[in-house]
Amino acid sequence: MPSWIGNLLNISTLALRKNSFSGVIPRSLQNMSKLETLMLESNMLSGETPSWLFEMESLKNMYIGGNNMIWKNSVKINPKCMLSQMSLRSCKIEGDIPG
Q1: Cα distances (Å, whole numbers) of residue 87 to 25, 32, 62, 66, 70
Q2: Per residue in 36-80, pLDDT tens?
Q3: Which residues contact 99 (CB under 8 A, 6 or more apart)?
Q4: Are 81 and 55 in contact (CB under 8 A)?
């Protein structure tokens, strides 16, 4: 997934399902201060589910299931977003999902 995607500052919905993206979710997405809906389902993304996603205050809907990412409960999350929907289907979840 290209890191320049975070330069799309006025995007409120980023829908990139089923695109065969691999690697990790680029940290540059944090630059997207108006992003409300993130749809990255059914790609080939890997690594740990980024805890910084929960620091994106505008984020309301997050769909990142169907990838090869792992949720590890070793990182403490203090969410700044108010998610109304979240999909982690087919993710390898270890431990509890924080309240």
Answers
A1: 15, 20, 6, 9, 13
A2: 999 999 999 998 889 899 999 999 999 999 998 887 766 677 789
A3: none
A4: yes
